[in-house]
Amino acid sequence: ELRLRIAKNAQTHVNHDSRLTVSIETKWGDLPNITRQAFLGGILGDGGLYKKRGRGRYYYYAETHGIIQADYLAWKRGLVAEGFRGGLCCLIDRREDRTAKKPNWTTPSHPIFTELRPQFYADGFGDKSIIPEVVMRELDEFGLMIWYLDDGSAAVKGGRPYPSISAPGWKREYLDCFCESVNPRLGLHLYIWPRFSKIRVENRIQFTSEDTKQLIPTWRKLAAQCSLPQCMWYKIPDYTQANFGGKTGRQKRWEDTVVEGVNGAKALGASDPEKLKLIEDIVEMKRNHATRSQMSDYLRSKGYPLSREAITRLFKRINSPLGSTVQSAQAPTT
Questions:
Q1: Is it the case that residue 270 has pLDDT exceeding 70?
Q2: pLDDT score for 246
Q3: In the beta sheet, which residues pair with residue 193?
Q4: How far apart are CA 156 and CA 238, in angstroms?
Q5: pLDDT tens-digit profile of 143-154?
Q6: How far is C-alpha 97 from the chain's CA centre?
Q7: Taking each helix axis from N to C terminus, what angle separates 308-318 and 292-301, rounded to the nearest 10 degrees?
Q8: Phi and psi dihedrals of 145, rounded to 5?
Q9: In this structure, are strands 87-94 and 99-106 parallel, antiparallel, or unpaired?
Q10: Is the pLDDT of residue 291 over 90?
Q11: Structural element, H or E, at residue 217
């Protein structure tokens, strides 16, 4: 306790403004567009704005992901202007059921984040719940992709992808305003599901089939230009249109091009450390509620194409002798 009081007293004598790597005169509009999109999409997604008590008067941006998305977090850090990149480290997430390392990105504090904080947080406190005017006005396809990569999923039903963004914390009225503002500006047809607010039902931003046809190719092009890490490509898979049948052949559907592995789930045996690491990755993806199609796309990007059915069989094997191998590999060391 004495050391804590001494540290707090010492902090009062530190000029935090002199430690900033970007001038405090820098305004939001002075930042490159890609930096603004990375921060807007990040705040809407997994990032947040925080302030250390007694350590400076400005807020900073911080974001944490699972260990398999470490490259993705480092990629996002590289998108922003150099003076805002801050530090990248690993935090220890200690829970009752497990202990895990998680990558964490923290920017320097700056007046820009202090100005943004009350725009996203109700009354300046609590959790994020407000989608401000700056999002309605400035968010473009790249910023929307960042939000989607953080909180989105691309479930496949009947061969057709149904991308959506989970938005449980945002107030319903702001989600409706977001769709009404962004749709005409970006030529989209986003809507909120469920159509009417329901108690204990999570709100989601749903993409129509027209939006999917427009955004997935655009996002894949942007991702390629910015060298998106392979660990996140499963969220924007390369779907191709194919005839759905019928005499006229006019009906269309989206068909996933993933092929069955030669030996199905047996292709991922536990004897190879590289394959064992892939099994650990998809187990973590399952904990994060990833779909079988997303896992299949991830494995295909690593050179082990498995269909959704093969992945289902693989998880059945994980509950057998293979499961003990995976669990022992995932157990934290003391």
A1: no
A2: 35
A3: 204
A4: 13
A5: 999 999 999 988
A6: 24
A7: 100
A8: -65, -40
A9: antiparallel
A10: no
A11: helix 209-225
